Amino acid sequence: MRMLRSVSRGLWDYRSFILIILTPLLLLPLPLVIKTKEAECAFVLLLMAVYWMTEVIPLSMTAMLPAILFPAFGIMKSSNVAKEYFKDFHFLLVGVICLATSIEKWGLHRRVALRLVSMVGVNPA
C-alpha cells in the first residue's frame, strides 16, 4: 500500500510531462490511419484541447500550436497561417495587453485613482 502511494505521488509530480508526451502519442493513430487533411486537423485541434484544458503548457504556447503544426502537416501554407495570426485586431489586442501590464506594473492605475480622490474628495455628493 505504501509503495502504491509513493508511485502515485511520483506520477502526480510528473503529470505535466506525462501529459505532454502521452497525449500526442495517443492521438497519433488519427493522422496515421486516416490519412486525410481533416484527420491531421483533428489531431491538432484535439491536442490543443487537451493542452488547453489541462494547462500543461502556457495558454499562449497552446494557442501557437496551429502556427507550427498546420504547415508541418501541410494543412495550410505558413503564409496563410501567418495572415490569420497577424491581423490588425490582434496587434491592437497585443498592444492593449502590453499597455495594461505596464500600467499595472508601475502602479499608474493607483496614482490616477488617488489623484482623482484627492481632487474630488471622498464625499459622494
UniProtKB/TrEMBL annotation:
Transmembrane segments: 12-34, 41-69, 89-108
Places the protein is found: Membrane
UniProt topology in membrane: Multi-pass membrane protein
Keywords from the named record: Ion transport, Membrane, Sodium, Sodium transport, Transmembrane, Transmembrane helix, Transport
Keyword hit for Flavoprotein: no
First and last residue of the signal peptide: none
Keyword Ubl conjugation: no
Main location: membrane
One matching Pfam family: Na_sulph_symp
InterPro entries found in the cross-reference section: SLC13A/DASS
PANTHER family: SOLUTE CARRIER FAMILY 13 MEMBER, SOLUTE CARRIER FAMILY 13 MEMBER 1
Family: Belongs to the SLC13A/DASS transporter (TC 2.A.47) family. NADC subfamily.
Protein's UniProt name: Solute carrier family 13 member 1
Species, as recorded: Xenoophorus captivus
Phylogenetic classification of the source organism: Eukaryota, Metazoa, Chordata, Craniata, Vertebrata
